[in-house]
Amino acid sequence: AAAAAAAAPVISVEDLFSSLHRHIQAFEYEQAAKVADQVLTAAPGDEDALLCKVVALVKADAIDRALSAIRGASVQIDLGFYKAYCLYRQNKLQEALESLEGQDRNSMVLQLESQILYRLGRMDACVESYEKLQKFKIDSLDLKTNMVAALISAGRASEVQRMMDALKVKPSSSFELAYNTACSLIEKKQYADAEQMLLSARRIGQEMLMEEDYMDDEIENELAPIAVQLAYVRQLLGHTQEALVAYTDIINRKLADVSSIAVATNNLIALKGTKDASDGLRKLDQLVKKDDNKQLANGLDFKLFPRQKEAIYSNRLLLLLHANKLDQAQELASALSVMFPESVSPALLQAAVFVRAKNISKAEETLGQFADRFPDKSKPVLLARAQISAVAGHTKLSAESLARIPDIQHMPATVATIVSLRERCNDVDGATAVLDSAVEWWKNAMALDDKNTLDAIMNAAASYKLNHGHEEEAAQLYEELFRSHGSLEALVGVVRTAARTNLEKAEAYEKQLRPLPGLKGINVESLEKTSGAKHAEGAQVGKAEVSEAVKEKARKKKRKRKPRYPKGFDPANPGPPPDPERWLPRRERSTYRPKRKDRRQQVRGSQGAVLREKHDTTVAANASSTAGSKPGHAGASTSKGGSQSSTGSSEPARTSAKSRRKKRS
Q: Is the same domain home to 197 and 227?
C-alpha cells in the first residue's frame, strides 16, 4: 500500500486550479469545493483556494458548510462579507448586519446591507442604503425593483413616481415593477387604479414567463402574490364576495407559494370576522407549528415580514378570545409582547386578555408601561387605558390618560370628557385647571377658524366656574367674551356674575341691556314689597278670564248625542235590572252553590274483578235501602242513596274537572 501511494502521481497546484476552474465554468460547485480542499491540502495557506471553496459551497446552497469553513479558516483573510451572507441565508439577520460592520461600503456590501435591513423591517435605513447605491449607477432591473419596493414599505409611496423617473424605468418594464406600482397606489388609497395596474402586472407576467417556457402551474405560482393582492384590492373596494371566492380558490388549489397562501388565509379570516371562530382557528393552526404555537410552520418565519407575522398572530389571539380559550390567549399575548416589543397591537391585545380575565389593574399597568417606554406610539394605548379605567370607575386614572395625549388634549370633546371625569372624583380644582389650559391653548392657536371653538370653551369655562363658586374668574371670562364679540349672552353672563361680587360693575353693564317692552309703567319698589302670590295676580286673573271664556265657548259648541241602546231594547219598558254580579266569576257570586262530591267507593283491583265488585256494591246498596225504608212503602219508593247506587251500577259517576284536579294534586 505504501509503495502504491508512493507510485501515485503528484498533481501540481497549477493543475488543481485548472481543474477547479473547469468545474466552476460547468457549474459543478460540489466538485469545485472538493478540488479546493485538495489545493488546501497541498498548499494550506492558499487564500484563493479558501475563497473558491467558500464561494463554491455558497453556490451549492451548502450554507452551513460554507460558514464552518469560514470560521475554521487558518488563513488571515477577510471573509466578513461571505460570513454576513451566510448568516443572512440562515435568517440570523442581526448577526449578519453586525458582520458587515467595518467592511468597505462597496456596491456588494451595500446591496447585502439593504436586503438585511429590508428583512428586518427597518425601511428608513434600507432606503438610505439604496440611495447610497445610486452613485454606483448599477444598471440592474432587479436592483431598481428592490429600491421601489423599499420606498413603498417605508411609507413614501408619493415618491415612487419620482424615483422611477430618476431610475428611467416604467411599470411596464417588468411585472414586478407593475406590482410595486400597484402597491404604491394602494398606499395612496387609489384602489380602482391599483386594480387595473394589478391586472396589467398579471398580463405582463404571463407573457414574460410563457416566453421563458414556464409551465402553467409554475406561472401561477410565480404570479400568486399578484392574485392575493388583487383579491385584497377588491376587498377594499367593497367587493367582498369576489374577494372571498378569490382567497378560497388560492388556498384550495395550493398552487401558490407558502407565504402567499399564509397571507390569503389571514385575509380570508379577517374578511369573515368572528362568525366562525373555530373554523378560523383551524385554518390558522395550519400555519403554526404543532409542538410550538409561537412559531410559524413551513419556514414562514423566514419568508414573511414582521408586520405580516404580527397580523397572523394577532388574528389568532383575537379568535382565541372569541372562543373563550383564555389560557392559550394569555400565553400567546405574553409571547407577542416579546416578539414585537415596539408594536402597539401586542400591548392592546394583552390588555384585552387581562380585561376578559377581569384583571383591570393589570391591564392598566400594561398599557401604562408601554406608554412610558414609547411616548411617540402612546396615543392608542392611552385611549384604550382611558376607556378601560372609565368603565371600571377609575375616573382619576382615565382623566390622567386623556390628559397625556397632546394631539387631542385641548379638543372640545376631550376637554369636556376630562372635566366630567374630574368632577366625578370631586376634583373641581383639576377640572378648572383643564378649562384654563384649554382656553390658553386656543388663544395661542391664532387661527381664524378657531374663533368659534375658543368662544365655546370660554363660555363653558365661565359657566362651570360660576356654578362652582368662582364668580370673579367667571366674570372676567364673560367680560372678555363681551369685549371681543359684544354678544348678548356674554353681557347677561357679566351681569349675573358681577351682581354677586361687584354690584357697581353689574349696574354699569346692566345699562347696556336692551329694555324689555311693557316694563316702563311698573313700580319696582312696590313690586318688591308684594308677596310672591300677588306677584302674578294680574296675569293669573287674565288667564282665568280667558280660560272661562274658552270653556263657555266650548260648552256652546258641544252637541248632545242620543244614547245608543242594544238591539231589541225598549227604554220605555226596560224590564228587570241586570245582575250586578254578572261580571264576576261564578265561584265569586253570592248565588254560587258548589256541587257535591261523589263519595261513592272507588272501584279498585284487577281488570277481571271490576264487574263483580260493581254488582256486589249494587246489591248491598239495594239491600240497605230496603231495610231502611218504612213499612208499607217498600215497593213504592227507595231512598235517595239507593237510587244513586243503582244508577252508578250501570254507568260510572263522572267527576268534575275541578275535582279531578284536586285528586291529582
A: yes
